[in-house]
Structure formats: C-alpha cells, structure tokens
Design goal:
It is a single chain. With 135 residues, the protein is an all-alpha fold. It has one domain. Helix content is 82%, strand content 0%. The chain contains 7 helices and no strands. The two termini are 28 Å apart.
C-alpha cells in the first residue's frame, strides 16, 4: 500500500485535491473580508472585481505551487500554503491601509478597473515574494 501513495499520479491527485479545497476555503475568507460579493459582481460584469478576484486566485495557487515544490508531505504543503495565505491576506489589509484617500473595496465595487488591476498585481507580486521564502 505504501507504493500506492508514492505513485506520482496519486501524489499529483492528492496535491490537486488539497489545493482546490484550500482555494475554496481561502476564497470564502476573502469573500468575508470584502464589502462586495465577488461572484455577484463578476456575474454583473464588474471587471475590477474580476481582476482583483483573479489575482487572489492566482496568488493562492502560486503560493501552493511553491509549497508543493519544496515540501514532501501534504501536511507541510498545507501548512506553508496556510501561512502564505495569511501573508497574502495581510498584504490585502496593508494595501487598504496605505490608501487612506479612498477605500479599495468601494472603488473595486464601483468597477474602478485601475484599482482592480493594481489589486491583481499586488496579489500576484506578493505571491512570488511569499513563494520564494517557502522552504
């Protein structure tokens, strides 16, 4: 049975399943901390929300990419993925704090694409910085 778990296809399916589950949980958390409903706004055609949400999804997936690459067990992968997500989430709050002249969530909800694009770039950029530090 041990050789079953060491099969590359089984390892890939296990990692994929864990990342999908974590992605759903982490996106739910992001949904709770934003003023707007991501999926309703995307359905409405709000490109700023789509860009910000896409950046978050890419950021989380990229963090897990590094975590899978540098860890041998699913537990370590999940631990580093959770830590990376918490750093990404803190980056979101720092971004909001560093823009006192306007509210990020309000601008994204209003379909301000410039703010949505910057949100995307921040999520993607931070995910590379976080990922580079995963051991």
């Amino acid at each position: 049975m041990e050789s079953f778990w060491e099969n590359v296809l089984v390892e890939t399916a296990a990692s994929y399943s864990v990342v999908i589950l974590c992605l759903v949980v982490f996106m739910t958390i992001f949904e709770l901390v934003t003023r707007y409903n991501n999926w309703k706004e995307i359905k409405r055609g709000n490109m700023a929300v789509a860009m910000a949400t896409g950046g978050k999804i890419f950021g989380i997936a990229n963090i897990f990419r590094y975590s899978i690459e540098h860890n041998d067990s699913l537990l370590e992968t999940m631990g580093w993925g959770l830590f990376g997500f918490l750093l990404l989430l803190s980056g979101y709050f720092i971004y909001e704090f560093l823009t006192p002249t306007f509210k990020i969530d309000e601008e994204i909800e209003k379909d301000n694409r410039a703010v949505g694009f910057i949100s995307l770039v921040i999520s993607v950029g931070l995910s590379f910085v976080i990922g580079a530090n995963i051991i």
